[in-house]
C-alpha cells in the first residue's frame, strides 16, 4: 500500500531524515519507533505533504505522492491523527468529528461513518453535544482518532498517541488502537512507547537521528537487545 524509498527531508539546510525506506502492506499495523527528535513526526508530516521532500519517493497504491498537497493526499485515502491532541475546543464533539469527513465521498457517508465511530467510542456519543474542550486528555485522543477515521482512510497515520497521557488513559487509547488492528485498518503508528506499540503491531522500524537503524517483526523487536536497552528500560 505504501512504499517509502530513500527519503530525505531537511529543515532549511539541516537534514532531518536521511535515506529512510519502509513499506506498509494492506491490513498491517506498523510501529515507527524512536526517541524524541529521532524524526518520527517529520516522517509522518512528509507523508502527509506537510513538509517538502528533498529527495526520494513516497508511493501510495502505486502513485507517487511526494510533495503532493495535503488535501490531495487525504482524497487518495491517507489520514493523519496528529500528536498533541489537536482539537477544535469550542465546538461540539459531534462537529469535531464531522470536520474529518473532508472529501466529497466521506461527506456523503458521514452519517454512516459517525455511527461507526460512535460504536468504536461510545463515550464520544454520550458527549457528542458537549464542547470538545470539556473532554479529558484520553477522551480528546479518542476524538482525534475518531476524526481521522471519519475520512474513511485506507491508511491511518497515528502520531505519538501516548504523549502526555497517564497510564490508565494510555491503556484505554491502546485498547482503541487494538480494535483498529482487529478491524484490519492499515495503520502506521509513530510512538516513543515501544512496548505498547510493538504489542499491537505486526512489524516495526526504529529511527535514530533520522535514519532507519532496525526493522523486523514486532515479536523479534521486543526481544532485541537494542530495543530492550534503549526503550524498555533494561
Structure in words:
Helices cover 38% and strands 26% of the residues. It is α/β, with parallel strands linked by helices and 234 residues long. It folds into 2 domains: 2-77 and 154-231, P-loop containing nucleotide triphosphate hydrolases (Rossmann fold, 3-Layer(aba) Sandwich), CATH 3.40.50; 85-150, no CATH class. The strands form 2 sheets. A 6-stranded mixed β-sheet has the order 6-7-8-3-9-10, sandwiched between helices. A 4-stranded antiparallel β-sheet has the order 2-1-4-5, covered by helices on one side. α7 (137-149) packs parallel to α8. The radius of gyration is 17 Å and the shape is globular. The mean pLDDT is 89.
Quick rundown:
The protein is of the alpha/beta class and 234 residues long. Helix content is 38%, strand content 26%. Helix 7 packs parallel to helix 8 (167-182).
Essential attributes:
234 residues, alpha/beta
| Global shape | globular
List the secondary-structure elements in sequence, H or E: EEEHEEHEHHHHHEHEHEEHH
Report, as a whole number of angstroms, the end-to-end distance. Answer: 35 Å
Low-confidence stretches: none
- Report helical residue fraction: 25-40%
Q: Which whole number gives the mean pLDDT?
A: 89
Overall CATH class of the largest domain? Alpha Beta
The helix-and-strand class reads alpha/beta
From the 3D coordinates, which CATH architecture of the largest domain would you assign?
Answer: 3-Layer(aba) Sandwich
Secondary structure topology:
Blueprint: E1 2-11, E2 14-24, E3 29-33, H1 40-47, E4 55-60, E5 63-64, H2 70-75, E6 78-81, H3 93-98, H4 104-108, H5 110-120, H6 122-126, H7 137-149, E7 155-159, H8 167-182, E8 186-191, H9 194-200, E9 203-208, E10 211-217, H10 218-222, H11 225-231
Parallel strand pairs: 3-8, 3-9, 6-7, 7-8
Antiparallel strand pairs: 1-2, 1-4, 4-5, 9-10
Amino acid at each position: 500500500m505504501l512504499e517509502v524509498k530513500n527519503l530525505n527531508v531537511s529543515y532549511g539546510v539541516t537534514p532531518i531524515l536521511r535515506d529512510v525506506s519502509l513499506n506498509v502492506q494492506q491490513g498491517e499495523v506498523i510501529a515507527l519507533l524512536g526517541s524524541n527528535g529521532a524524526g518520527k513526526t517529520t516522517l509522518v508530516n512528509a507523508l502527509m505533504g506537510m513538509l517538502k521532500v528533498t529527495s526520494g519517493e513516497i508511493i501510495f497504491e502505486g502513485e507517487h505522492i511526494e510533495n503532493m498537497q495535503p488535501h490531495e493526499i487525504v482524497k487518495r485515502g491517507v489520514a493523519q491523527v496528529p500528536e498533541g491532541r489537536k482539537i477544535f475546543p469550542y465546538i461540539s464533539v459531534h462537529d469535531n468529528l464531522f470536520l474529518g469527513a473532508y472529501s466529497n465521498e466521506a461527506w456523503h457517508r458521514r452519517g454512516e461513518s459517525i455511527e461507526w465511530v460512535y460504536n468504536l467510542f461510545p463515550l464520544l456519543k454520550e458527549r457528542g453535544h458537549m464542547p470538545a474542550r470539556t473532554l479529558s486528555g484520553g477522551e480528546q485522543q479518542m476524538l482525534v482518532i475518531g476524526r481521522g477515521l471519519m475520512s474513511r482512510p485506507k491508511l491511518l497515520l497515528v502520531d505519538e498517541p501516548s504523549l502526555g497521557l497517564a497510564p490508565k488513559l494510555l491503556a484505554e487509547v491502546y485498547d482503541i488502537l487494538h480494535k483498529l488492528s482487529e478491524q484490519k485498518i492499515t495503520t502506521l503508528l509513530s510512538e516513543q512507547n515501544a512496548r505498547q506499540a510493538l504489542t499491537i503491531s505486526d512489524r516495526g522500524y526504529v529511527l535514530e537521528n533520522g535514519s532507519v537503524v532496525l526493522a523486523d517483526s514486532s515479536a523479534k523487536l521486543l526481544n532485541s537487545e537494542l530495543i530492550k536497552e534503549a526503550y524498555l528500560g533494561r
